[in-house]
Amino acid sequence: MDFQLTEEQQMIQAAAKDFAEQQIAPVAADFDASGEFPLSNIQAMGELGLMGIEVPENYGGAGLDTIGYVLAMIEVSAADAAHGTIMSVNNSLFCNGILKYGTEEQKQKYVRAIASGAEIGAYALSEPQSGSDASTMKSRAVLSDDGTHYTINARKSWITSGPYARYLVLFASTNPEAGAKGITAFLIDTEKEGFSRGKTEPKLGIRASATCEVELSDYQCAIEDRLGEEGEGFKIAMSVLDAGRIGIAAQAVGIAQAAYQASLTYARDRKAFGQEIGSFQMIQQKLADMKTKLEAARLLTLRAAWAKMESEKTGARITLDGSMAKLFASEAAMWIAHQAVQLHGGMGYSKEMPIERYFRDAKITEIYEGTSEIQRMVIARTETGLR
Ligand code: CAA
Predict the structure, then answer these.
(1) Whose CA is nearest to atom 8 of ligand 1?
(2) CA of 378 relative to ligand 1 center, distance in Å
(3) Average pLDDT in the 56-61 region?
(4) By Cβ atoms counted within 10 A, which residue in 6, 70, 138, 330 is the most buried?
(5) Structural domains in the chain (count)
(6) Domain co-membership, 345 together with 380
(7) DSSP β-bridge partners for residue 215
(8) Which of 297, 283, 370 is nearest to 333 (CA)?
């Protein structure tokens, strides 16, 4: 076992850290307050290769590995989790699925646009009445008699980057009687007729990452824009989420890292009862537990990243690795952010410091891309083989 990072991994980590500290951290509070989408930063991140870290260079990406992706996600999310969300959807939920299941033409057209930062991507699985039970979706796609295109009618909710996305990976049923086995994946161009956007969600945290409903009404999707085979969509959705959950675990580690670092600084600087609060045992206990959970989350996330890299050679599923990393890291981030607020006292509750933002942002990591309850179910099902 070698914990040493490669030269390339160190380079992407340093580039992401530099950009995050110079360009993201100084504006994070303003974007959080206004809820404005950080479009110019996202485009600049694309130019740096951060929107397609694992995408081969011939499709416009940085051509690096999953560990490099995790390291960069941690640095960006430590500066601002909302930037991290947009980055993770472009990398994991959009590019990753097309790289794995797409045709050469789809990779050239869709992956290149997103990985280079020229356009923004999104992933449309959830519906108003179907969240955790994703296979019960009501969206429908019907193949034309001549087999050239599908007519899609769909209503999708909680679409991260939806208000700004040019392209979507969208799931709809082509055979409702077949349940999960009747779902098919499609690549949708939001500039085409039949596509519209619904209400934008007012959110507790990651406020600069825009989220909305989308609707497809008799949208005509050419057969060339079907991703994978008919009926293969649920498997595609789930295997994309296996990788996506590693990105969310990395985002959680980033938030936890920022909350811990701020707490450490505050414990050294802040004085009460004539001494630094970091010399009190109750504060020391918090710091010790925060640091230990943070590093455990980081290791589980990096191990899942390594498992994904191995799976590219073996074809093995990484469901267990992704779910464990996301479950542990998201709950660690929530707990660490909670402790950070408490340790900072009134300043932890004030918008003058970023601590309350870390607390609000951490919560979503326990919810999206599968709640903690779903991760526990996936882990237990995988381990026991029972349902
Ligand atoms: N990889 C490949 N195949 C998989 C798979 C995976 N990870 N998980 C399941 N499958 C396959 C199964 O093997 C099965 O196929 P077979 O019958 O041939 O074996 C088929 O898919 C159906 O699987 P299940 O019977 O396990 O399906 P289920 O209906 O019981 O659902 C679930 C399983 C784990 C609950 C799943 O629905 C799930 O993960 N739900 C959570 C959905 C989710 O994470 N939503 C988040 C939306 S994305 C998001 O948050 C948006 C954002 O913008 C950030």
Answers:
(1) 238
(2) 9
(3) 96
(4) 330
(5) 3
(6) yes
(7) 155, 196
(8) 297
